[in-house]
Amino acid sequence: MAPRLPWCFLQFLLLLLGVSSAAQAQVNITRGSSLTPQGPTSSWLSPSGDFAFGFRQIEGNSSLYLLAVWFNRIHGETVVWYAKSSSDGQESPVQVPSSSVLRLTADGLLSLRNPSGDEVWSPPVPAVAYARMLDTGNFMLVGVDGKAKWESFDFPADTILPTQVLSVGQQDKVLRSRLIATDYSNGRFLLAVQTDGNLVFYPIAEHSTLRYNAYWASNTVGNGSQLVFNETGRVYFTLINGTQINITSAEGYSMDTQGDFFHRATLDPDGVFRQYLYPKSRKMRGQGTSQWTSVSSIPQNICQRVKVKAGSGACGFNSYCTIDGTKNQTSCQCPQRYEFFDEERQYKGCRPDFVPQSCDLDEEAARAQFEMTLVNSVDWPESDYEQYSPIDVYECQRLCVIDCFCATAVFQPSTNTCWKKKLPLSNGYMAESVDRTVLIKVPRGNNSQSQNTGSSKWKKDKKYWILGSSLFFGGSVLVNILLISILLFGTYCGISITSKKKLQSPQPSGSSILPPKIFTYNDLEKATSGFREVLGSGASGTVYKGQLQDEHATSIAVKKIEKLQQETEKEFMVEVQTIGQTFHKNLVRLLGLCSEGTHRLLVYEFMTNGSLNEFLFGDARPDWNLRVQVALGVARGLLYLHEECSTQIIHCDIKPQNILLDANFMAKIADFGLAKLLRANQTQTNTGIRGTRGYVAPEWFKNIGITSKVDVYSFGVILLELVCCRRNVELEIADEEQAILTYWANDCYRCGRIDLLVEGDDEANFNIKKAERFVAVALWCLQEEPTMRPTMLKVTQMLDGAVQIPTPPDPSSFISSLS
Asked: Quick one: which residues bind ATP (predicted)?
């Protein structure tokens, strides 16, 4: 037996040394170590492997990565910390492409650099000896004296962990919720440990640091206050005098080193601070679901806690908030005939799926077209502009129906009180204790026309329009075209009409859609201050800026039509009345007209941010996300014109000057100025060359029919301009290979060098995969053979990433429209 003891002992020593070496290698991260998102080492683990620090791919975006700390041993690898950078007082998550590198340099500095070598994030500390990822979830930079010089626990994101303490310094220590679970941008709620000794929860204005009125506060005073998450599973606020205020608690669950649960406490996107548990062992998980379980939260009812004068409240505008008591989760709901702007991002609120009531309706017409639906136990405590008492519920309904400003009325049975409310509605919530009934104004029956959907019956009886500006036209062409379309300048597809008699028939009494408003010449002369400020001019007339004398002081653009010929008068009036009945958010809206004596004027909504031409080719490069938004907006506008409205319209002159931007930089297609009507059931036309140099499809130069694919071609050119922030034709460029963008983009795509197209554009480089997708879509749109080009429906699907994009064929040539 004696000889065996040393051998076993030796094995034991070797095992100890091996374990010790492995643990040491993971505990201390030495100078010269580095991480890359897709390299052999993308994260550094804590000794137990419970936590990891490194790169996490952002859900829904395969090209961007977050620098984060996460639970490494659980399903979903929940993120508990992520790096943020500050710009202009705003914080945003650090998101980098796959070829970025995080390095603890030989000089002892932790630095994250993008593919261009620019530093995008670095902790503000002097040189350190090493880094360490702890089993508590804390990532530390340690000096030569063995003391922490920087730690992630001191710079929390939306989560705190056991042993973490939030102590205030010269400024508040805060947690900021995410926008949604998969979007790490700063959300709408903030928890602040304030320097005055108060713990406060605030709603925050999105994209800012503005704090609305608090929805929860400890109402304490005193320097030295701390928010503590201790090892026993309790989160409490402690004052300098030792007083402890309980916030959340899971003390009934084991928190020792052999504990059965992982713990975290998070300020969630709905503004609730929740404490969560997750079973560590498979045995424990087998007794329940393998997911985080909320065991404690504050406040108990976020729906009724958040009440703000400005802002939407707990949910978005026009929605109301409810609490699922069994799951302790917040839910946002839209009222009847309203829908979320974005199902995933419900904080954006709800919109009606019908055209709101016109103020031109008399009482009888209003009551014929609209009715009130009832919802009990719901309230929107803000947004009221008029109150009645005593009153019964029937009179409350009637007064709202006949009032064009009234979108909703709230009736309180116990006091017989009625409140009228305008849109947008805010601070909405539902609860059994609410002694109120909401009356929501909606169109009667099926008489309403949705803003976004057309009737399939109408689509069977389509009429086709071509709208474009001709490079070569005479006076007679101007006569036949002008009056039909500028009417469209902005916005509308008309209802299909098959006979003269039907054109002249009145609207159904139940319709909530009215023709454009009729203005007098005097009205528009006053609105434009005597036609003083010119916005632009063209062959058909001049556009002036104006302001209506209504309650909203609505800004308008007035087009004064020149050289109107008498024989087109009847056609002018018919088409304005017909085409002005529907609209789309990506088409400039026609508000009204003037037909008085010899005066013919068209009134459109005013676009605050001018044309895409000014936006894209100015001195400063526009934000990448705005350019993406514009591309999607133009695509959806063209999709509507081509396929979704009852009368197909081919624009024929899509170019940056004809795309306008509203106050929110939403793109709207404009200038339907010169049009040619196609006969019913006709899908193409042979006509003279139309459009603008650089954007004209090749078929204009051939003796073949013109279809909606000419607009697809022009969109392809604009899409490349949006990606590259340059004009399609720039003959002054030194490198002649780059002079024509369509050629240059094709060459770069074939060589796999999209980076050359967006050289110097950091944002586009960070989104290089999306940029490559957009270029591929553009090249499909630019195919010389029209049938090879996708429809606008397919284009929007490809841009959104909803379908795979096959490699576009290499076109034999691009007709650059320079002939």
From this structure: 560
Contact 776, 807 (CB under 8 A): yes
d(CA 158, CA 189): 10
Strands 648-650 and 464-467 turn out to be parallel
Cis peptide before 390 (omega within 30 of 0): yes
Answer whether 158-299 and 451-620+648-692 agree in fold: no
- Both structure tokens of 596: 């008085």
Cα dihedral 676, 682, 688, 689 sign? positive
Task: Check: CB of residue 522 under 8 Å from CB of residue 549.
Answer: no
Strands in 119-121's sheet, in edge-to-edge order, are: 34-35, 101-104, 110-113, 119-121
Residue 260: closest CA among 279, 234, 285? 279
Q: Which two tokens stand for residue 489?
A: 């300048």
Task: Looking at mean pLDDT, say which of 172-176, 258-262, 684-688 comes out highest.
Answer: 172-176
Task: Give φ, ψ of 60 to 5 degrees.
Answer: 85, 0
CB count within 10 Å of CB 563 equals 12
CB 487 within 8 A of CB 593: yes
Average pLDDT over residues 534-550: 82
What confidence score (pLDDT) does residue 446 get?
Answer: 47
Query: DSSP per residue over 381-414, as a string?
Result: -S-EEEEESS--HHHHHHHHHT-TT-SEEEEETT
The single-letter code of the amino acid at 125 is V
pLDDT digits (tens, 9 = 90+) for 109-122: 999 999 999 999 99
Residue 375 CA to residue 279 CA, distance in Å, equals: 41
Q: What is the CATH number of domain 694-819?
A: 1.10.510.10
Half-sphere exposure of 645 (CA within 13 A, CB side): 32
CB 466 within 8 A of CB 706: yes
Tokens 């001709």 appear where?
Answer: 470
SS3 state of residue 302:
helix
Which region among 394-403, 548-557, 572-581, 697-706 has the lowest average model confidence (pLDDT)?
Answer: 572-581
Look up the CATH number of domain 451-620+648-692: 3.30.200.20
Regarding pTM above 0.70, the answer is no
Q: Which residues are catalytic?
A: 653
Report the binding-site residues for ATP. 560
Both structure tokens of 206: 């999105």
Asked if CATH classification 2.90.10.10 holds for the domain at 158-299, the reply, yes or no, is yes
Instruction: Give the count of beta carbons closer than 10 Å to the beta carbon of residue 374.
Output: 13
Mention every residue, 6+ apart, whose C-beta is less than 8 A from residue 554: 547, 548, 591, 605, 606
CATH architecture of 20-155: Orthogonal Prism (2.90)
What fold characterizes domain 301-448? Hepatocyte Growth Factor (3.50.4)
Length of the chain as a residue count: 819
Identity of the amino acid at 605: E
The domain spans of the chain are: 20-155, 158-299, 301-448, 451-620+648-692, 694-819
Rounded Cα gap, residues 147 and 183, in angstroms: 34
